[in-house]
Design a protein that fits this description.
The protein is of the alpha+beta class. Helices cover 35% and strands 24% of the residues. It has eight helices and twelve strands. The structure holds aspartic acid (ASP).
Length: 304
Amino acid sequence: MNEPILLVHGGAWSMPDELVAAHERGIRNALRAGWAVLERKASSLDAVEAAVRVMEDDDTFDAGRGSFLTTDGRVQCDALMMDGATLRAGGVGCVERIRNPISAARKVLEESAHVYFVGEGAERFAAAHGIELIANEELVIDREREHLRRCKEKAAQGMEFEIFAHSHDTVGAVALDAAGNLAAATSTGGTLNKTPGRVGDASLIGCGTYADNQSAAVSTTGWGEPFMKLVLGKWAVDQIAAGATPEAAAWAAMDYVKSRLNGHGGIILLDRNGRMGMAHNTSRMAVGYRRQSGEWCAVKLSRP
Ligand code: ASP
């Protein structure tokens, strides 16, 4: 019997002071939802799905409703879930009509011989497996219409859109259940003003999400392209398999992405023994965990 643990993140960037409380609240709500699942002895897969759904439903984060918009003003989401016990994985990319992409990813994991579906095919698969398809407009909020407008205005002047050029509000969770099984889940609306059809690291196996009972589970957030080029999630998990602690592996991964490709973001890791690692090279990261002994939440981590 293992001690269950749930670790979640809600993005890593230079989050302004006025957004800190909403991020903390969102993280705590996600921890509560995921922990309720672990407490009734359900699986780590159920726990990460429950935690991520809460953050997808929360407009604060760049996942589900409230996501960043594409250049043509639509929400386009990617999500992946992975089961450390069996290495089964399920992902969806570029879905526009699903309120909770992580639940569509779960359907792929459990009910398909395939691993990844994109666009219309992903939506058709989800609908055929009981997931309601909604209008894209239901996922679009005024705050993001305004962000897109300002971003395009700046781009037209050849300037970056200040903080939002580096804003990463993807959500993710990793969990270990009482049976000793690890799971990981990540869900994102991607980057602001992205070209339609672009997929980031979050939903790609080994880049933003990975889980293997023989080593660890991981979820990342940040500028996706550098993370993808380095297959950063799996890189960090492999450090743990080679003997590093999750904490050392998490900080090493952020140093690696920075030194190789000037990448930025954050990472959470949980190994099969319940040891945790969290790190970021942005000024803030929304992160928290829950275990038997209590709950903890932060928007900034200090380096050991
Ligand atoms: N990593 C995500 C992506 O590149 C963005 C994020 O973490 O906010 O799609």
